[in-house]
């Protein structure tokens, strides 16, 4: 009898403990879900986020929700199956295709660019390797940095070879392999290499080797003319409201940024990366091996510190930005956590939002969002004048420091918005002057003030402020370039 009693007691105790821990864990999870929801809702309420969010903890989805409008004209809400343009999240798919071809022996990571693209100029193409292109250390100028790219080039379609010859074949900015500089030309060239090696368009190769294979049915190469069900419209937010984002021909982002997807499909992608479905373990490790600038192959790899702790977590992430959209994916691989943020009204820093979610997952303190101070004072500026706006800024900073975002970047943003409105150049100058008064150590602040003076035709003050910017930051290449130009024109 004693033995039976002990066994029954043990089973009862085991069941009790199991139920206790299940409820306790669910309680913790629900608390985290509630905090995540409150966080994202606050960002949305402050007009800084409109899109979809997915959070997985330990590989399991605990939060998935849409906020705001997928289409403002028709009042269509964002949902978890809404499709967003990904921008540079595309690069991680391109790097996966490259390594699959490395596995097949069709591409050598140390192979030269001109070996794969016979039409590429030999003097530079013979020095750049596939590895250089994957890690942004090629030295080839990025076509999106061309001064006239978005205004004059981005609306027109180009065949791949013609675009490369015209816009991705500039002289080196630095010796290949010597430094890191984020570069869209490199991934455009990788897409062309994939096409040359396989003999099929990049879009088809991607679909066959990754998307169809994983069942990512809501992901693809975006074409403006194609009817794509549940595709979000991209918007630009101004101080006067929202407007449709400028047109961009999607042949130009190409293998560097032309995909669309959903948070749900990106969860499928994340889960596949823990397996060897797409790539063997040894080659997959190259994706996540940090090189110069902590950049792997299509991913940024960092060790993140957690507040109130000596603990660090390994973060594998990437952001994307394309007309009307901003995107973010972050994987905390040791614990299989995932954060995906897709936004069709760019506003808040998605990396900042992701950091807060990570802290919630680890039960650490996090910073809630703050309202934009310049959106408040802009209204005062338009209804009264710039002096009243500056006065309001000072009063709110004194009384509500924790409630508003008072960073120098905010005043800078307002200054540029005014500067681009031809009739408000003088107001822009006053805002930039106030910015350097509040933040006298900001090199960027003086750079912006100098630009405003230059637009206003005051070369003397433009030179003075570019020189001050350069004094604070000797590596400000923009200030060096503008100073040289202004001095020559004197």
Describe what you observe in this structure.
This protein has about 500 residues and is an alpha+beta fold. The chain folds into two domains: about 280 residues, 3-Layer(aba) Sandwich (Beta-lactamase); about 120 residues, Tetratricopeptide repeat domain (Serine Threonine Protein Phosphatase 5, Tetratricopeptide repeat), CATH 1.25.40.10. About 50% of the residues lie in helices and about 15% in strands. The strands form five sheets. The chain has a six-stranded antiparallel sheet, with helices on both faces.
Number of domains: 2
- Just name the CATH architecture of the largest domain: 3-Layer(aba) Sandwich
> What is the rounded distance between the termini?
105 Å
Using the CA coordinates, give the radius of gyration. Answer: 26 Å
What's the CATH class label of the largest domain? Alpha Beta
Helix content estimate: 40-55%
The average pLDDT is: 93
Number of helices: 20
Number of strands: 15
Strand line-up across the major sheet: 2-1-13-12-11-10
Query: What is the third-level CATH name, the topology of the largest domain?
Result: Beta-lactamase
Task: Provide the descriptors you would attach to this structure in a database record.
alpha+beta; Serine Threonine Protein Phosphatase 5, Tetratricopeptide repeat; 2 domains; three-stranded antiparallel sheet; disordered N terminus
């Amino acid at each position: 009898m004693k033995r039976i009693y002990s066994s029954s007691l043990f089973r009862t105790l085991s069941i009790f403990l199991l139920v206790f821990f299940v409820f306790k864990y669910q309680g913790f999870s629900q608390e985290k879900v509630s905090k995540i929801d409150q966080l994202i809702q606050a960002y949305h309420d402050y007009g800084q986020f409109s899109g979809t969010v997915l959070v997985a903890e330990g590989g399991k989805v605990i939060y998935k929700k849409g906020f705001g409008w997928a289409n403002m004209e028709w009042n269509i809400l964002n949902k978890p199956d809404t499709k967003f343009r990904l921008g540079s999240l595309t690069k991680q798919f391109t790097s996966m295709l490259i390594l699959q071809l490395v596995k097949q022996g069709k591409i050598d990571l140390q192979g030269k660019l001109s070996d794969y693209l016979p039409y590429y100029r030999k003097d530079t193409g013979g020095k750049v390797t596939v590895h250089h292109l994957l890690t942004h250390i090629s030295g080839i100028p990025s076509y999106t940095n061309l001064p006239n790219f978005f205004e004059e080039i981005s609306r027109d379609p180009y065949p791949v070879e013609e675009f490369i010859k015209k816009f991705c074949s500039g002289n080196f900015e630095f010796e290949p392999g010597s430094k890191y500089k984020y570069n869209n030309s490199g991934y455009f060239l990788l897409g062309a290499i994939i096409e040359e090696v396989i003999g099929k368009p990049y879009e088809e190769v991607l679909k066959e080797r990754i998307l169809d294979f994983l069942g990512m049915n809501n992901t693809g190469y975006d074409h403006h003319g194609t009817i794509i069900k549940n595709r979000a419209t991209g918007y630009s937010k101004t101080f006067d409201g929202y407007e449709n984002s400028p047109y961009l021909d999607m042949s130009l982002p190409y293998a560097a940024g032309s995909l669309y997807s959903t948070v749900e499909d990106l969860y499928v992608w994340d889960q596949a990366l823990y397996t060897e479905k797409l790539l063997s373990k040894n080659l997959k490790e190259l994706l996540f091996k940090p090189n110069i600038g902590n950049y792997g192959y299509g991913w940024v790899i960092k060790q993140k510190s957690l507040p109130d702790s000596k603990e660090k977590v390994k973060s594998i992430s990437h952001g994307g930005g394309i007309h009307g959209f901003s995107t973010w994916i972050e994987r905390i691989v040791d614990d299989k956590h995932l954060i995906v943020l897709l936004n069709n009204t760019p506003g808040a820093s998605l990396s900042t939002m992701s950091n807060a979610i990570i802290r919630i997952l680890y039960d650490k303190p996090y910073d809630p969002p703050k309202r934009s101070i310049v959106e408040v004072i802009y209204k005062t500026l338009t209804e009264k004048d710039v002096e009243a706006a500056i006065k309001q800024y000072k009063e709110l900073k004194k009384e509500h420091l924790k409630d508003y975002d008072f960073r120098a970047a905010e005043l800078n943003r307002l200054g540029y918005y005014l500067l681009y409105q031809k009739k408000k150049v003088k107001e822009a100058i006053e805002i930039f002057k106030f910015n350097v008064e509040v933040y006298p150590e900001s090199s960027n602040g003086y750079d912006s003030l100098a630009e405003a003076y230059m637009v206003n035709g005051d070369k003397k003050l433009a030179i003075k402020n570019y020189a001050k910017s350069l004094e604070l930051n000797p590596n400000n290449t923009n200030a060096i370039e503008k100073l040289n130009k202004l001095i020559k024109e004197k």
